[in-house]
Design brief:
6-stranded mixed beta sheet; 22% strand; 2 domains; 4-stranded mixed beta sheet
Length: 440
């Protein structure tokens, strides 16, 4: 069989169509094996001290509540909060001490979880803010990080909550409040080895499902939305959920560029380049984000035309150049620059998208952005952050050309990679060749 033709679990019939069975090597994540409680505890003990030190923060204060909870509630143990509760993390040399200040109704449950060093119970009728102010006065921290920021993940403190906190703290400590965004990016972006192992398995499943879904395509009959529905069915069977907005996951597109969007009822035709952008969430915690590309052979073709093969090869080469540029201590801007330089050299049209982004608890996770070099000659913002061992990125190898109808088409081979001490490595085997779909 020709290199680049993927037919896992399927049979290629003599007239070029496919009959497919589900990939039995794709195994679900049993919910009873969810290791999050142990991993969360370890993340606070082993990763939070360094993140607080890098952000120059003495105390991190997060407030959780029911119905409209903080985005980081599950990371600090406040996912089951009822009435407002405060979670305080004190940097003490190279360790973190944690304190939960909780209404009596939830305090017992917090103590049972055992995540925090101490749980302080607020008697009914007492003010949470006054209790927080007492602790601050006793410990006298320097800089106090709060989740009030223009960075959405670190912006869970409501306006009313902030007013109550500021009033209770008074002028001396009010002036010590700083946004928690840098702390949050430094902490959440780095994943523990156990988390990397989970994400590797999830990435492998994601890639296998995409290849499997292409095998249901019957040219001139199957639509992009049909492929998306197949993937949705497989997600349900495996007990995984969407890595991003369900209406846009997966995004299957056999036409011109559409960016982040939903799959349409466009019929897949011979000669089409199909892009599937797909991500799953496992244990309702860890996300993936991977793209796979297929080409629909025209009658008489055994491989894509020469120009299509060249475009794909250029995209793959760009992806490998990015991987070579990724290592601890470099900026996301410099990684993006390696891609942009190759795109110009290889003759690609420019793209509006950055090279990549962190992926983990969200498909677009906290941490350095692999972007910015198309718009600035200097790193700034998230693309100025340094890459660190244990960070995971989803990133593209781009090549864009103009179609006969004047629209553009982009090959954006997207893989997931983890930063190691020596450089970076893929989480699952990258796409090296076209997935080919036979025509009738």
């Amino acid at each position: 069989m020709k290199q680049g033709l993927y037919f896992t679990g399927c049979v290629l019939l003599t007239f070029g169509l496919l009959t497919c069975s589900e990939n039995r090597s794709v195994q679900p994540f049993p919910p009873e094996n969810n290791p999050w409680s142990q991993i969360r505890h370890q993340r606070i003990k082993s990763l939070l001290p360094e993140a607080m030190s890098r952000a120059d923060v003495d105390l991190w204060l997060t407030v959780c509540r029911e119905n409209d909870n903080d985005p980081l509630a599950m990371h600090v143990g406040g996912e089951n909060a009822g009435r407002p509760a405060a979670f305080m993390f004190f940097l003490e040399e190279d360790t973190v001490r944690s304190l939960a200040i909780s209404p009596v109704g939830e305090a017992t449950a917090l103590q049972d979880v055992g995540l925090h060093d101490e749980v302080k119970v607020i008697p009914r009728g007492n003010s949470l803010w006054q209790e927080v102010a007492k602790v601050v006065e006793e410990t006298r921290p320097g800089r106090i990080a709060i989740n009030s920021s223009d960075y959405n993940i670190a912006d869970g403190l409501s306006y009313t909550q902030r007013l109550g906190l500021e009033k209770a703290l008074g002028p001396e400590y009010f002036r010590r409040l700083v946004p928690s965004d840098l702390l949050v990016k430094e902490w959440l972006s780095v994943k523990l080895p156990d988390e990397i192992a989970i994400m590797k398995k999830a990435a492998d499943i994601t890639a296998k499902l995409e290849a499997e879904a292409y095998q249901i395509v019957i040219p001139d009959k199957t639509t992009d939305a049909d492929v998306a529905r197949y993937l949705k069915k497989r997600m349900t069977q495996l007990g995984v959920t969407d890595a991003w907005a369900p209406e846009q996951n997966p995004n299957v597109n056999s036409g011109p560029d559409r960016g982040h969007s939903h799959s349409t009822d466009k019929v897949i035709r011979p000669g089409d380049v199909i892009q599937t952008d797909f991500g799953i969430k496992v244990y309702d915690i860890w996300c993936t984000d991977i793209q796979r590309f297929a080409y629909v052979l025209k009658p008489g073709e055994n491989e894509p035309p020469e120009d299509i093969r060249k475009y794909f090869a250029n995209a793959v080469a760009g992806h490998r150049k990015v991987l070579s540029a990724m290592r601890p201590g470099v900026t996301g801007w410099s990684v993006d620059k390696a891609q942009r330089d190759w795109m110009e050299e290889s003759g690609s049209l420019p793209v509006m998208w950055g090279t990549g982004h962190p992926v983990g608890y969200w498909a677009h996770d906290a941490g350095p952005s692999l972007g910015g070099s198309a718009y600035s000659d200097q790193p700034a913002g998230n693309n100025a952050l340094l890459l660190r061992t244990g960070q995971v990125f989803a990133y593209d190898g781009f090549f864009t050309w103009e179609r006969e109808d004047g629209e553009t088409k982009t090959i954006s081979v997207e893989e997931m990679a983890v930063i190691t001490d020596e450089g970076a490595e893929y989480l699952t085997s990258p796409q090296e060749n076209w997935i080919l779909i036979g025509s009738q």
